[in-house]
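Notebook entry, cofactor series.
This is the third protein in the set we're modelling with a bound small molecule. For this one the ligand is pyridoxal-5'-phosphate. I'm keeping the input format identical across the series so the outputs can be compared line by line later. Sequence and SMILES below, as received.
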Amino acid sequence: MTCSDLNRVLASSLQALERAGLRRVLRPMGPRRDGVVMLNGRAVVDCSSNDYLGLASDPRLLEAARTQLGGRELGVGAARLISGNREEHGRLEQALATFKGTEDALLFGSGYLANVGVVPALVAQGDGIYADSLNHASLIDGCRLSRGTVEVYAHRDLEDLERRLAGSAHRYRHRWIVTDGVFSMDGDLAPLPDLVDLAARFDAWLYVDDAHATGVLGKTGGGSSEHWGLAAPPEITMGTLGKALGTTGAFVAASATVIEFLRHRARTFVFTTGTPTCLSAAASVALTILHTDPALLGRLRSNVAIARGALRSKGIDVGGDAATPILPIVLGSSARTSQVGEALLQSGYLVGTIRPPTVPPNTARLRITVSAVHDPRQLTGLADVLSVALGKAS
Ligand SMILES: *Cc1c(COP(=O)(O)O)cnc(C)c1O
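Returned structure with ligand:
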């Protein structure tokens, strides 16, 4: 086989994607500011990002990163266990643990890396994993990389989960329930109090991926635990810094013992370069802002209500839980979803057009996300143009 053979094989796969309407393109965009991005020389309202609080371009975060960078260093040059550990990492981890109400926390380069490192570290051969069918790809991959046996239960289906837990106690040494707190493409919530209850009844531990809940759900943005008023946090909560908290990276919050164990065993922590400290400094400021400026979360919630109300008033069927800024509109057909997305772009709005394999077959959808920094008129405007676009698209 030669290089040209490889190119031929892959080109034919790409052509198949093209025929199925699943070819993707990387669009060059300018930075996002106040919910607006430059795309092909035009300013468009961005309703597709996870920058729910507008913190990614907040001057206070930018200043913190700039100050931290100063004349110091950009990269830390090694894994943290070698010579890449810095005070800023530890300081942010302490702040995250306080934020999440746990004893300790551990930083990762991204949410993807956290999930594919932490699940295999905790789940050994002979253990069982019960995973929601709509968990994020990184959580699916983490489960696959572990040596445990994975049982997938129907999305948010407590009866299915209970049946599986009840029938399998003898089969596994330890058991884990693994779920997203907020499902990224559906905007609905895992029923955490019930999952905590099932975990207690069946001697299982709970792992919650709070990527879209961190900085969003709960009175102070503390996430799913706070939203549901859980008496104690789950054994493991993963949260990302790249969504509401405006930077990039992720963390796991847990007991001091769990975190100490992960420092030794999570391969995506041990065998990777530490994250730049300018990001840690900026993320620390994001936490301070959440703490000191509750009006920011208030604006997000008010904008979510405005967007949902405006879409509903146009007779548009919006899915997801009203507590999340993720508003999915399931159209089914990938081609129609792309067509409506393109029409919206022509009208000055960028929304997510989500197609398989990101979502199950025949459930392609528009994924609208709302930010605290959107002007309410942008959101009512979106409902107007979307109503027209849906009417026109076949
Ligand atoms: C975005 C996301 C991740 C990955 O986080 P990154 O920091 O972007 O790698 C993991 N889990 C869920 C549920 C997500 O939505």
